[in-house]
Amino acid sequence: LHTQCSQRLQSPHMDLSHVPATQEKGWYLALMAPNVKGPNYAWLDPSRLYCHPQGLQDCVADLLQPFQGDRIDMVAGIDAMGFILGAATASVLRKGFLAIRKAGHLCVQTLAQPYTDYSGQEKVMEVRTDAISPGLRILLVDQWVETGGTMRAAIELVERLGGVVAGVAAICIEDSEGGRWIQQHYKCSHCVPPRLQTHFNHHQ
């Protein structure tokens, strides 16, 4: 994966047509770009993956594979990068999409939930109160689960409104205390093969 990533970065432009002959689960992870701007940014940028049509399709397919046959009534994506994967997932499932927002963006009645994000900052998340009815089964999607604080806040919002968390999906769910808690309590899906999980946990 590291070799593939290095080869991609040598070109000034993204190759949006190349697909490897062997497409094992997670092949598209090599499309992600490492941080070149320093410690104030995330260690990896998955948005390159979304530019590759086959990479994005295969990523969504892998995220949905564990939920085949499960009842999912709606997909909810978490502000902001979870909107991309969440909307793509909802489209494949032919379900509606609910945006779970950072506080201050929704002009309708909302329910709020404070949380601490992966960087240690205290924030507040909101969801509109009219979209989730009791018993509605919701698949929660975010780009990444690092410490688990953001995803746990989304879970609490859904459950406080009477919804049921049908599952949690992200490109990577790190082996952190929060990540383990989520995987112990909810059906989860992510795209990192077991042999690479340790590297992702250590941001390598």
UniProtKB/TrEMBL annotation:
The pathway noted for it is: Purine metabolism; AMP biosynthesis via salvage pathway; AMP from adenine: step 1/1
Q: Which InterPro entries match?
A: Adenine_PRTase, PRTase-like, PRTase_dom
Which domain of life does the UniProt lineage start with?
Eukaryota
Gene3D superfamilies listed in its UniProt record: 3.40.50.2020
Q: Which GO terms describe its molecular function?
A: adenine phosphoribosyltransferase activity
Q: Keywords on this record?
A: Cytoplasm, Glycosyltransferase, Purine salvage, Transferase
Q: Which residues form the signal peptide?
A: none
- GO biological process: what's one of them? purine ribonucleoside salvage
Family matches, as SUPFAM superfamilies = PRTase-like
- Where is it localised? Cytoplasm
The EC class name is transferase
Report the EC number(s), separated by commas if there are several: 2.4.2.7
Record keyword Secreted present? no
Pinpoint the Phosphoribosyltransferase domain residues: 69-191
What reaction does this enzyme carry out catalytically?
A: AMP + diphosphate = 5-phospho-alpha-D-ribose 1-diphosphate + adenine
Recorded GO CC terms: cytoplasm
Q: How does it assemble?
A: Homodimer.
Family membership, please give it. Belongs to the purine/pyrimidine phosphoribosyltransferase family.
Name the UniProt record assigns to this protein: adenine phosphoribosyltransferase
Taxonomic path: Eukaryota, Metazoa, Chordata, Craniata, Vertebrata
**Gene from which the chain derives:** Apt1
